[in-house]
Structures are given as structure tokens and as C-alpha cells.
Design a protein that fits this description.
heterotrimer; A mainly alpha; B mainly alpha; C alpha/beta; A: mainly alpha; Methane Monooxygenase Hydroxylase, Chain G, domain 1; 3-stranded antiparallel sheet; 3 strands; B: mainly alpha; Ribosomal Protein L9, domain 1; 2 domains; 5 strands; DNA replication (chain A); GINS_Psf3 (chain A); nucleus (chain A); DNA replication complex GINS protein PSF3 (chain A)
Chain lengths: ~210, ~200, ~575
């Protein structure tokens, strides 16, 4: 689960990536162009046996991507809400204050994936993603490289998963730099897995 | 929607990605497999009908949806197992070849089998290196000193050193020992490196 | 037995071995331990280090490690107790003792094997020990074991003249021997700091450096600050240290370009003898120091007034005095020493300055040796483990060692804060003890009692803290008396009782009178006699013989006996 392989690479690159699987389960509003026999129970709003032409359903990305494939054209998909014009305007105004995680935990990745679905607004979404990322990145970089010890949880809560990963990486390198400065980097330490295991055990005892 | 159960497994891994190994969700895995069985059988049926009557496009969509779901479930299951194995492999390097019982208890029999095999493979490989073998789990960072100062965090009884002598590891006693002797113990949290 | 050449007979002997080091939990012992550790590090001597709190601890630790180690080093403990008797070591076990406690046990000194003492060289300390011939004597009698000879009671019944003569002679000799031993063991006191002895060992091997010297300085300072040695002894040690310092500094000067700002620098200074003033505000520091606090009688309104007068006399605005020293005006700060000294005489403050050392590292604030002593002492007596971030139960011993390891160590800073808390507790308690007249004269000594359930009970259960408190109390009490009474009281020691951590018993501590310059303490012996005479259930398990625990029911008869013995 490297940064080099962010969620969104799709099945080919990230077949076993937990993040990618999580991301691809996000729901996409879709409209069926064909009817589907016997799978009516997938649509909780009706009791019909089949899915009829024109029925609207939120499909997970993995299914939507397959069904909306230009060669099949079983469904048409809409852009999900956080990527629509209103939100793009907000991001344009000041991306730094938006709680991206609330919009979607994998905001950038999901946006990228939807580009391949050939929306008319595709190019606008792409531009907005880049702008938003570069706008926010400066702040994240600054924060992760300088903030030590303080409680940043309220800020971190607004980051999407990729941003969180970046932040954690910055913090880690800052910490190891500081440890190096005081000559502590040579100290052997209890492995993190072990100490976490012990901590939990101790809590269980208490 | 199909694949929800499988997604639950993935969520479980996601939740515990920072922590240690969670318990193997045998029930969850079984439920996903059952769902896959159902999907597979339904598809078989539909395909058999399609072959007889190729004008009916509507059931083709259903087959496609089921097929995608099957693929999705397979992917989730594999990712679930794979990510657990990654963690189990890391355990070998951190805890050593003997795992604490509660960690072991979280593993499925197959996982335990895999761990044993991995252990053996690693040991064989390490033995084959150089003359008389090379312990790869040692000196993960380049050592600065032959000896280091350590503090004992818990009562651990006697420790036998390479030269045959024994020392008593008693809580809060400080020792100056060859680094190679205590690196594992530090990683396991029995000793603490004092600088 | 005494080691004359510690390099050859001590260090070279253990260099190839695995060594067990047992350290008493006092600052001097810890400093000695730090020096020894770095010496061991130089030569890759593998060792195990265990802290020991009292005699019982010593025996337990010895027993649990004796299988694995044949060479043991005892730092600041064990010198004054018969080690062969209480430890019963196997024949191949070697015990090396570096201890500042006196008197040295005679068996330790004169035994031919296993126990080796390392003392300061060329010094009169060894001369204080009675001659061998006065204590041990071989009689012609063949069937007598030379070790237990003087206790021999069965005598052959022969009545010829010669034997009678011999008997008489023997009796005289025995009486004399008793007297000599009594004189020798009457007082307990402290000799040269263990840290200093080890530093000299390092120096002899040319392995000393500035950090080791700093530890030796702290060791010596702690002895003085905790009233273990008198001013005279302190100054002679300081002069010695100063010699080493100028030698080391001189060596540094030769290669001046290579010294970095981040290396530790030590200066010899004529510093103010007030507690932690560099890390506190001047006002607080004056209030809480033994010297100034008692002279001004800060527990009274009048005393506070006088303290304010004193500050006014110096011409330092009150706002400055009450803010952290680091933020005082630079000019005032630089002139502080002269200002204080000039006004001190007028207010009857004596010995406001003393010879001491400061260390500096990088651009951090200077650290005075006495600051470090305060800090480490308070870490050792830390009762509440208020360490939120670490769930591991750290021991005070380990923390204290860590505090000593670098002068920039964060633990040292923590210790300074703890020290302030403890000094406040001392000041408040002293004030209330004097106010309600808790200190009583029992004739041969002053007596006071700390009641169970008093607010700082947990602190008072710490022997180290209790001793510090007693000194404070004695000084303050003396100041609170009128002129005539004071002169008499100057010669009185103080006995203080405090609830012991052991259920149902009391800790009794005796400290020598103010007039006793050499800090000799006679309570060790007196306590022994009192408890023997009354058959009180007492425990003499502390290394310091003047601290014991008594079962509560036996306390009053024990104290009564003490009065009789001492009057």
C-alpha cells in the first residue's frame, strides 16, 4: 500500500490493495438502459422481480465501471455529488477549508476513476482535482514537517486518505530527523508491533 | 448488493491496519464463499438458458452483473488473505520464530501452517549463507558498538549467552552486553536500549 | 583488605570478567556508578547493574546473582558492614567495595581475602583504623581459632602462675580492645566521595575526561549539600577537583579549534549558596534555601518582612525578584553575586557563597553542581510516578541515572521541577512545626514527631527526604530560639520520628547537632544500645545506621532508653 501505487490504479495495478477495494465500493448513481431479469431485489425501492429500463440505482464503482463500459452500455452513470459544479466552486474558492474526508474518504482517487466514465464535465473535474490538491498540499506539507506533539486531529480529520498518508509520512520523517539530531536514531527499540501488542494486553488486564 | 459481505472483511483489515493481527474471520469468509456459490449456480442456469435461446438479451445483463460480483468477491477474499499473510510475515521478523499464544490464536490453521513453512524457509536460507549461516534478523540497522547498555523491563529469568555464561534478567537491572545477544530481546520488548 | 594499587589489583583483575555492580541509591553512589560504567565501556567489560536500597536488598540481590557472577563491585554500600558475615560468599567470589561510609568494618579491612576495599590513596583515613595488633592477637594456645579468639570463653583451668599472669594480661588487652573498638565505632560519618575515588582511578589510567570529572564534582557536592561532610572536608575535595579541572581545561586549550560549542564546559566558581536560583525566581530561591530561609525565618511575618528589606537593600525591584531568573534584567543578573554578598553581611547571612562548579553545554543555561544534586535527589525520592506518556513503570533509579547521563537530559529538567515541589513541602512543614512547637527538648537531644496522615506523609516516608527535612528543621528551630537557649541547643542533636512505609512501625532518624562541624553522627551506636537495652523490635536495615525502624508499640520505651543512654 505505497504512495507510489495510490488507490485508483484499478484492478490491474492494485489488485490486492485494501485502499483500492475500499475506494471502488463507493456508490455511483446509475440509470439502467436495459432491463435485468430476476435481479429486482437489488433495488430496495421496488418489489419488482426484474430491474426495469430507466430505473435508477446506486451501484458500487466496481460494478458501474463494468456495466457502463462503452462496449456494453448497460447503464449510464452520473457524476457523484462532491464532484459537481457547486462543490467545484467551493474548492476553487478555498480548498484548504473543505473537509474532503467527509465528501469522500478517497476523494482524489474516486474523482480520477470517474473521469474514465466520459462525463461531459470530465475535464473540469480533472482540473478541479489538481487545483484542489496543489492548493491543499502546501498546507499539509507545512503542517507535517513542522507540527510536533500538538493535537492536530481536528485538522487531520479533514484530509482524504492520500493526504493523510502524506501527512503521516512527513511526520515520520520529521520524527526520525529529530531522533537523529539527539543521537537517538542508533537506539534499538522495541518493534512497534510488539509494543502495540503489549499495550493492548495491558489494557485488557486493567 | 453483492459483495457487501466481502467488503466487510476488507473493512476489518482496513480498521486494524495499524494494529496487530485481528482474529481470522472464518464465518465471514464462509459467507462470502456461499454467496459466490449462489451466484455461480444462478449464472450456470442462465447461461444454459441463453445457449438454448440466444435472443434473450435481458438475462445477459444479469449474467454480467453476477460475473462481476463473482470477480469482486474473489478479489476481496484474495486481498483479505494476502494482507493477513503480509502481517504474519512481519510478525516473524518482529516477534521471532515463536509467537505469543494470543497472536497465534488469531490465526487460521492454514495461516499457522504457512507461518511454519515460512519460518523453515527462512531458517534454511539463513543457514545456507556464508560459512555456518548468517542471521538476517540481526543487525537490521548497522551496529555502532559491539556492546550496548540495556535495561530489563520485566523479570525474565536467566539468559544464557553464547559463551555459555548465564545472566539473570531481573526487572530494572541494567546490563552491558554484546549487542548480538540482546537485539532480539529488545525487539521483543524484554530489554530496553539505554543510551 | 585494603587495595593499595587499585589499577592493578582492582581494575585489571575484573577487566576480563563479567561484573555485578551494586549501587546504593544516593547521588554519590550513582555518580560513582556513571564513572565506572564509562570505564567499563572503554574496555568492553560486561556488567550488570542493580540498585540496592538497604542491607536486606543487598543480600537478596547478592543471592540471586551469585551463581552467575564471581566479581562484584559495591558502590557506596557495604563498607561498614561485615560482608563476609551477611553475604556468606563462596570462596571464589571477589567483592570490591568503594564506599564513603565510615567507620569501615574492621573485618572487611583486615580480612585476607574476598573483600577488597578501595580507599583514597595517601590519606589519613586508613590511619584512623586501629592497629591490627590492638584488635587481633594470636595466643600461644593451639586449640583456639584465631578468628573467634577474642570471644573465647572456655578457658583451661590451670592455676599455675604463668597462666594467671597470661590471663590478667589478656583481660587488660581485651578491655583495651573493647575501648578502641568502641571509640572507633562510636560515630558514623562519611569519608571521601566514592565518585571522587573512582575518578582518581580513571585519572591514574589516563581514561578520565571532563564528563567523569563532572560526575565526581556532583558526588562531592551531594555529600556537602546533604550535610554528610563538613565544610572543611568539602573544600579540600573541591580544591582537588579544581586541580583536575584546570588540567583538563588546559588540555582542551591546546587544541582549541576542535572544541565544539556543544561539548560540556565546566567552570570553577564562587557561587551563591541558594537553592536552584538559576532555575527559579530569586525570591522563591531565597525563601526555600536552608541558609537564607532559616536566617530570615521566612515562616514568620517578620521574617518575610526582613526578606523584603533584604531585597530592597540590594536594590532589585520586587517584580524582577519574583520572575524567573532567566528573565531578570541582564545587568541585575550579572551583578547579583556582588549585590547579595554586600547586603548579606548586614543581615547576618554567613557563608552565602561557596566554592562550586558550573557546567554549560551549547547555549543552554548554566547548570550548577548543586542544581544537579537537587534534581537527582528529588528524582530518587520521587513518590508519585506521574509519567503520563509512558505506561511502563520506570524506576526512580533508572530515571536518576538518565538524569545524570547528560547535562541536557530532559529528566534533569523534570527533576528540577520535582525538587521545587519538595523544597516547598519542606518549607511549609518546617513553618508549621515551628509555629505549633512540635520540636521538644528531651534533655540530651531534641525530639519531634511527624504524625500519621499528615499531608506530605508519602514524602516523609522517604529516608532521604526525611534527613533533608530534619536538617532544615534543626536549623530553623535554632533560629527560632532566643540567644541564650540557642547556644545550648546548638550542641543538641535531633531525633525525628515518622510513619514508616511498613505498616505499624515508625522510622527514627537522628542527625548530629549543629555545632558538630565534621558531621559525625553518634546515633547509629546509640540506637543499637537503646534497642538492645529495651529489647525493642527494631530494624537496622538502612545503610545509614542513624536511620532505623521501630515497631510502634516499642517506640516510647525505645525513646526513653535513648534519653537515659545519652544523658
Amino acid at each position: 500500500m505505497d504512495l507510489l501505487c495510490p488507490p485508483g490504479g484499478g484492478m490491474k495495478q492494485n489488485y490486492l490493495s485494501i485502499d483500492d477495494i475500499m475506494m471502488s465500493s463507493e456508490k455511483i448513481p446509475s440509470t439502467f438502459l436495459v432491463s435485468v431479469k430476476t435481479l429486482g431485489y437489488l433495488d430496495p425501492s421496488t418489489n419488482k422481480k426484474d430491474i426495469e429500463v430507466g430505473s435508477k440505482l446506486d451501484l458500487p464503482l466496481w460494478l458501474a465501471l463494468s456495466l457502463a463500459h462503452p462496449r456494453k452500455k448497460f447503464v449510464t452513470v452520473e457524476l457523484t455529488k462532491p464532484y459537481k459544479a457547486t462543490y467545484r466552486e467551493i474548492l476553487k474558492a478555498d480548498a484548504g477549508v473543505v473537509n474532503l474526508y467527509k465528501l469522500c474518504p478517497y476523494y482524489y482517487a474516486l474523482g480520477q476513476q470517474q473521469l474514465s466514465l466520459n462525463h461531459a464535465e470530465g475535464i473540469l473535474v480533472a482540473r478541479s482535482l489538481i487545483l484542489a490538491f496543489s492548493d491543499r498540499f502546501r498546507r499539509i506539507m507545512d503542517l507535517s514537517g513542522n507540527a510536533i506533539g500538538g493535537d492536530n486531529s481536528s485538522l487531520i480529520q479533514q484530509f482524504d486518505e492520500v493526504e493523510r498518508r502524506l501527512f503521516a509520512l512527513g511526520q515520520k520523517s520529521l520524527q526520525s530527523f529529530q531522533r537523529w539530531e539527539v543521537g537517538e536514531s542508533r537506539t534499538l527499540r522495541t518493534s512497534e508491533l510488539v509494543s502495540r501488542h503489549r499495550k493492548r494486553k495491558r489494557e485488557a488486564v486493567d | 448488493m453483492f459483495g457487501e459481505k466481502a467488503l466487510d472483511l476488507i473493512r476489518e483489515v482496513h480498521r486494524t491496519r495499524e494494529g496487530s493481527l485481528g482474529p481470522y474471520n472464518e464465518d465471514g469468509v464462509r459467507q462470502v464463499l456461499e454467496e459466490m456459490q449462489v451466484l455461480y449456480e444462478a449464472n450456470q442456469q442462465d447461461v444454459a438458458q441463453l445457449v438454448q435461446n440466444d435472443s434473450d438479451q435481458t438475462s445477459l445483463t444479469a449474467v454480467q452483473i453476477r460475473h462481476d460480483s463473482l470477480q469482486r468477491n474473489k478479489r476481496c477474499l484474495l486481498a483479505y488473505l494476502y494482507n493477513r499473510l503480509q502481517k504474519i510475515r512481519a510478525l516473524r521478523w518482529e516477534f521471532g520464530s515463536v509467537l505469543p499464544t494470543d497472536v497465534r490464536g488469531n490465526m487460521s490453521p492454514k495461516e499457522i501452517e504457512w507461518f511454519t513453512k515460512y519460518n523453515r524457509a527462512l531458517a534454511n536460507y539463513m543457514r545456507s549463507l556464508g560459512n555456518g549461516g548468517l542471521d538476517l534478523t540481526q543487525d537490521l540497522h548497522p551496529p555502532q558498538n559491539v556492546h550496548i547498555e540495556v535495561r530489563c523491563v520485566e523479570d525474565k529469568g536467566e539468559l544464557e549467552l553464547d559463551d555459555g555464561s548465564k545472566i539473570l534478567l531481573k526487572k530494572n537491572s541494567l546490563h552491558y552486553l554484546p549487542r548480538s545477544q540482546c537485539e532480539h530481546l529488545i525487539r521483543q520488548g524484554v530489554l530496553k536500549h539505554v543510551t | 583488605m585494603l587495595i593499595t594499587d587499585p589499577v592493578k589489583d582492582f581494575f585489571q583483575k575484573i577487566i576480563e570478567e563479567r561484573v555485578l555492580v551494586m549501587v546504593a541509591q544516593d547521588v554519590d553512589g550513582l555518580c560513582a556508578c556513571k564513572i565506572l560504567q564509562s570505564l567499563f565501556k572503554c574496555d568492553h567489560v560486561q556488567y550488570t547493574l542493580v540498585p540496592v536500597e538497604d542491607k536486606q536488598d543487598l543480600v537478596t540481590e547478592f543471592d540471586s546473582h551469585k551463581e552467575q557472577y564471581k566479581h562484584m563491585v559495591l558502590l557506596n554500600c557495604g563498607g561498614s558492614i561485615d560482608l563476609l558475615e551477611i553475604l556468606e560468599p563462596d570462596d571464589d567470589v571477589m567483592i570490591y567495595v568503594i564506599d564513603s561510609r565510615r567507620p569501615i568494618d574492621l573485618v572487611n579491612f583486615y580480612c585476607e581475602r574476598q573483600v577488597y576495599l578501595i580507599l583514597k590513596q595517601n590519606q589519613e583515613e586508613a590511619q584512623l583504623i586501629p592497629d591490627y595488633d590492638h584488635i587481633y592477637r594470636n595466643y600461644d594456645s593451639d586449640n583456639e581459632d584465631s578468628d573467634t579468639e577474642y570471644e573465647q570463653s572456655s578457658k583451661r583451668h590451670k592455676f599455675d602462675q604463668e597462666t594467671l599472669e597470661k590471663k590478667r594480661e589478656k583481660r587488660i588487652w581485651e578491655e583495651k580492645r573493647k575501648e578502641i573498638i568502641f571509640d572507633y565505632e562510636e560515630y558514623s560519618y562519611y569519608g571521601t566521595s566514592a565518585a571522587l575515588i573512582l575518578y582518581e582511578l580513571a585519572w591514574k589510567m589516563s581514561k578520565d575526561d571532563i564528563t567523569m570529572l563532572w560526575w565526581a564534582i556532583i558526588g562531592v557536592t551531594s555529600q556537602y549539600q546533604n550535610k554528610k561532610i563538613g565544610r572543611e572536608k568539602y573544600i579540600s575535595s573541591v580544591l582537588e577537583l579544581q586541580g583536575h579541572l584546570s588540567r583538563l581545561n588546559h588540555r582542551e586549550e591546546d587544541n582549541e579549534n576542535t572544541t565544539s560549542i556543544d561539548s560540556i564546559k565546566i567552570n570553577f566558581e564562587h557561587d551563591l549558596d541558594i537553592a536552584l536560583y538559576r532555575h527559579w525566581s530569586l525570591f522563591e530561591s531565597l525563601c526555600h534555601s536552608l541558609n537564607t530561609g532559616t536566617t530570615f525565618k521566612v515562616w514568620t511575618n517578620l521574617g518575610m518582612k526582613r526578606l523584603h528589606q533584604f531585597l530592597a537593600e540590594m536594590g532589585i525591584p520586587l517584580t524582577q525578584c519574583k520572575q524567573s531568573f532567566a528573565f531578570m534584567e541582564t545587568k541585575t543578573r550579572d551583578n547579583l553575586q556582588t549585590l547579595v554578598q554586600e547586603s548579606a553581611e548586614k543581615f547576618g547571612l554567613r557563608n552565602i557563597k561557596f566554592h562550586s562548579f558550573t557546567a554549560q553545554c551549547g547555549f543552554n543555561h548554566k547548570l550548577c553542581a548543586s542544581d544537579v544534586v537537587f534534581s537527582v535527589d528529588s528524582i530518587l525520592t520521587n513518590t508519585e510516578s506521574s509519567k503520563p506518556e509512558s505506561y511502563e513503570d520506570n524506576s526512580n533509579f533508572v530515571d536518576a541515572l538518565e538524569g545524570l547521563s547528560r547535562i541536557t537530559s530532559p529528566k534533569l529538567e523534570e527533576g528540577l521541577q520535582l525538587a521545587k515541589v519538595q523544597l516547598r513541602a519542606i518549607k511549609n512543614n518546617v513553618g508549621s512545626f515551628i509555629d505549633i512547637g512540635q520540636v521538644l527538648s528531651y534533655g540530651p537531644f531534641l525530639y519531634t514527631n511527624i504524625k500519621e496522615g499528615s499531608p506530605d506523609c508519602t514524602l516523609f516516608a522517604q529516608p532521604l527526604f526525611l534527613v533533608t527535612f530534619s536538617h532544615f528543621l534543626l536549623h530553623s528551630y535554632m533560629r527560632s530560639l532566643g540567644k541564650s537557649k540557642r547556644d545550648r541547643a546548638r550542641n543538641l542533636p535531633l531525633v525525628i520520628c515518622s510513619p514508616s512505609p511498613q505498616e505499624g512501625s515508625t522510622m527514627v532518624v537522628g542527625i548530629p547537632p549543629l555545632s558538630e562541624e565534621s558531621r559525625k553522627n553518634l546515633f547509629g551506636n546509640a540506637f543499637h544500645h537503646a534497642s538492645e537495652r529495651t529489647k525493642s523490635r527494631t530494624q537496622h536495615h538502612f545503610f545509614n545506621p542513624a536511620i532505623i525502624t521501630v515497631v510502634n508499640e516499642d517506640r516510647s520505651k525505645f525513646i526513653d532508653a535513648l534519653i537515659t543512654i545519652m544523658s
